[in-house]
Specification:
little secondary structure; single chain; about 80 residues
């Protein structure tokens, strides 16, 4: 099960995730290229994150249901209500 879960993780370098500026670690986002990023924004507090905020990885609606890191970020980020 662990191997299949990792296989479903989004690749930072895949065209879709690269276009959105996705990084597994939000602190590594290129803020010159993606000025929408601000400290404190991450996948765990995004409304597209389809897991609990405490889950280290969960599916993402913006990235085709692939798994993203809770501490990751992309420009599709939208504050969880």
């Amino acid at each position: 099960l662990q191997a299949s879960a990792q296989a479903n993780r989004v690749d930072e370098n895949a065209p879709g995730s690269a276009a959105l500026g996705y990084k597994h670690d939000a602190t590594k986002v290129d803020t010159k290229k993606f000025p929408a990023y601000a400290a404190g924004k991450n996948c765990a507090n995004c409304m597209l994150y389809q897991g609990k905020p405490t889950d280290p990885w969960a599916n993402c609606a913006a990235l085709g249901g692939k798994q993203v890191a809770a501490k990751g970020w992309c420009m599709a980020w939208a504050k969880k209500a």
